[in-house]
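Progress report, Aim 2. The chain analyzed during this reporting quarter is listed below.
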Amino acid sequence: MMNDQAQALRRLVKSKRSDANDAPPHEHPKSSGARVVTVTSGKGGVGKSNFTLNFALSLQEAGYRTLVFDADIGMANIDVLLGSPASSNLVHVVQQRKTLQDIIQIGPLGMHYIPGGSGFQDLLELPSEQIDRLLTEMESWSERYDIILFDTGAGLSKETIRFILAADETFVVTTPEPTAIADAYALIKIVNGMGHGTDFRLVVNRAADWKEGSQTAERLSSVARRFLHQSIPTLGVLYDDPHVMQAVKKQTPFCLLYPQSKASLQIRELAKSYINGSDPAEPNGGVKQFIRNWLRRWSS
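Predicted structure tokens for the chain:
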């Protein structure tokens, strides 16, 4: 049985979802189509999915219609972080028991998300006419959403690389740990070697302070400039904050549970910077083009 505190947390999230659904949309600049962003990391355990979820909520709070697609085929956990295990996912779409619209979940603040599962791989086994129907349905996302975040698996998997190559831009999440920095650089190096010209942005998570975070970012960026001849701008630095782990244990996003915490204030500023002042990449053909790129690169 849940204790009183846990029940109160569930009521908080439920209330925020209901309020967001009833409230009118915020005013925001109209985009020329949904921007598709891949969020990845060189290794696991750096807080990638937690960053993705709270960044998406910060975008939604700022008035940008946001969809999170849990594309971590092996370790999907966006619904776990939300404390809302989903009853359906991509597997049901592949089996033609559900449509994509059926499996889209409404999260806090009205943010939408698609639970992860092994179904994305199985898209390759579908008949071409069914794929075309899915692509047509996904194309409507360009009008329904402003930003779509694909939370991929960590590391140098073939699946992750293909998501990176298909997206408009990619956020690479790392920490100041030497192994995390080395693995992030290795991922960037491999993609760079494919000659795709991917737009990367770096997020340094769990930094002790601004000095450590900025030094970590500069270390990776300078090596990329020297050896890969590629500029890797920094999207932001997030400090190590005990509220983050407390929120994970309570399965509630930290930006909702502890809105005045250091991590919450920083991720809102990071989202605001991305929206207003970071010159984000323009959409390169919309959602349908992203999926076609993904399918083409998978089969190549």
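Residues 91 and 97 are 9 Å apart (CA to CA). Strands lie at 35-41, 66-71, 105-106, 112-114, 147-152, 169-174, 200-207, 234-239. These observations will guide the mutagenesis work planned for the next reporting period.
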